[in-house]
Amino acid sequence: MIALRLVRLIESHSEQLAESLVNKLERSSRAADLRRVSPAELRERARDVYRNLSDWLLTKTEDDIERVYTPLGRRRAEQGVSLSALCWALMMTEENLWDFLEMEGMREKPLEILGGFELLRLLDLFFDQAIYFSTLGYESHWKAQHQAAVEHLARAS
Asked: How far is 15 from 145, CA to CA, in rounded Å?
């Protein structure tokens, strides 16, 4: 089964993938807020996802994901990381996987498998970007609301 072999390939390269992801996040202007989180913490989080991917995909339930990612979201908020940077980091975690699989696949897989992967990748990328930009819009709305409220209170004082 190709999918299981690819997951095992990802798991066996979890260190390399984690390092690659941290480097991409450090260079990304969209993830600038993540500089408030230590690279070691980011690397360990990425390593955990990549190293345990088969568990995440095959055995973990929605409740398991909630138990891990709700506290992660809370922690990032406490660290002063914007929601858009958090979302971008999660999307880059997936994008980093696709980059890795494409590099591995080009050497070993038939062209039609790569074409299928490319289609799935483009769909994922579209929806990921839709999430990211929707989140930016959401944040800008609430920031504007907050700023207006602060100005109103200042004038009323």
From this structure: 42
